[in-house]
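Appendix B. Chain record.
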Amino acid sequence: MTKYEDSLPLQLIRARDVSMDYFRPILADNEITEQQWRVMRVLDTLGEIDFSTLSRECCILGPSLTGIVSRLEKMGYVQRKKSANDGRKYYIHLTNKAKTLVDDLRPLIEAQYIELKAKLGEEKYRQLSSLLNALIDTKEQ
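Structure tokens predicted for this chain:
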């Protein structure tokens, strides 16, 4: 049996925590959670999308995402719009307030990526990203 310290899921959780340490202070200073930021980043990148797509893209289960979207809506960062064709389906998009926040945080977040890449090394960062994407791609095969 694989030793626990060589457990890939455990290593990935630890690596996630280390990587998020670079970004958590920025998010905390702006009173948004990691999950809220993830939702906002996806919406900033993809634009208005339906709830199911947002759930899949953010890797957040529907029941949890419902609460996150509700809180973001109360904060004035997202709006929901019912589908014209399907009353059960709705779309979510960023407000101008959220777009401003994303634009304001973008250079701060990028600075943290630069610091992370400097500590790890650009080549190792690229290798790590490539290996993680290869692992993710095994699910699609």
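Further analysis of this model is presented in Appendix C.
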